[in-house]
Amino acid sequence: MTDINFGHINIKLAELMNKQNISISKLAFRSETQRTQLKSYIHNDIQRVDLAVLARLCYALECDLNDLIEYIPPQDTHDS
């Protein structure tokens, strides 16, 4: 069976935090999210996205969901 590459989802939380100059502690407080959970999002080390966490992050960072996550399509490996 061939393993199909569908691309992946990139969470841009670290980028947003740097842009807004906000610490993980401050974001944890504002978003009412545990620091350990935030670290997983920062390092793109999550398997299942929690919509409530995304909503809290968007609220705390005053951003849109599109600012926080992006879809990276697979690289085309077929010869044309």
TrEMBL record:
Residues 13-68 form the HTH cro/C1-type domain. Transmembrane segments: none annotated. Signal peptide: none annotated. PROSITE patterns: HTH_CROC1. GO terms for molecular function: DNA binding. It holds the Pfam family HTH_26. This is HTH cro/C1-type domain-containing protein. The lineage of its organism: Bacteria, Bacillati, Bacillota, Clostridia, Eubacteriales.
